[in-house]
Predict the structure of Ribonuclease HI.
Amino acid sequence: MNVRIELSYTTPKGTEAAFTSEEMRAKKALLLAEDLEKTGRMKNIMFIDNHENRWNLKELRKQMEEIKTEPHNVTVYFDGGFDLETNKSGLGCAIYYEQNNKSYRLRKNALVDELETNNEAEYAALHHGIQELELLGVHHLPVTFIGDSQVVINQLKEDWPCYEEELAKWADRIESHVSKLGIDAEYKLVSRKENKEADQLASQALKEIEITSTSEVKA
């Protein structure tokens, strides 16, 4: 969860001013605010997320304790590949998250044969990642979805129109699932090189190499 800090500062002689920080991880914001509070010159410290939800120090500490045991700080890399010769699609997703003060990576792929284009495979790969989030128990949290498909990312960000009926159905399905889970979705476009892990998982699926693994990621 990302928040910004808003606070009032008073000098020893009583001059007061208001300050707002840049957006940052809630854990970092708490550390900074607690350190600033020790000066005794800070008042009205508040934390605000991008939906304008507000917490004071006590409330944010409680919020962070509640989500610590659940998957949070979630990022999903996804990629889909379509084989014209076999009419099969490979779906790949790599999910990074934190839980109980540890970092994890979940890798999952799937081979499907009901799709007709590469763009459908890209959408299906993203939906595959969302299904895995539901199984993990991710809900009512911000999630960043990262892919190299300009069509999928730009259509879901509503930067590009979606004229193809099948792709529109996929977009609706994804938006409905995201809404059901209460996820605050951010979509980010990267190069294929930056998405090589999900790309490899999709390629392995097309070769009928099934991957399902969860491992701890060391800092």
